[in-house]
Sequence to fold (120 residues):
Amino acid sequence: MVKHQGGSRRKSRSKFRKNARQKGKISLVRYFQSFKPGERVQLNAEPSIHAGFYHRRFHGKAGTIIARRGRCYEVMIKDRNKEKMIISHPVHLRKLFEKASAKQAVKQAVKQAVKQALRI
Fold:
C-alpha cells in the first residue's frame, strides 16, 4: 500500500492566498463578529488563522448558522444533495445579504411611485 501524501491543506496554495492589499493585520471586528441562528453566511477562509478552519472543498459555499459551539459556529451547507454541518470560527465567515429582500424593497418603491403617480 502507498502512504497518503500531504494534509488537509495540500494543493490549496491559490485557493487560500491573500491579495497584496489584504495582507497584514486582520480586522478585530471580523475576528469577533457574531451571528444569530438562521442568518445566511459564506465560508470565506482567513488563511492567517488556522483555528476553526474548514476543509478546502467547502471554500466559497453559502450556508445557514445553526448554533454557537464554543467560540465557533455550526453552519449547515448543502454539498450537492446532502446537507452537512461545518464547525467554523467567525473569522472564516461572512454575512450574506439576501437578494430577495433587495428585490422586495425595489418592488415596494415601485408600487409607492405608481400610487403617487395615480394620485396626481
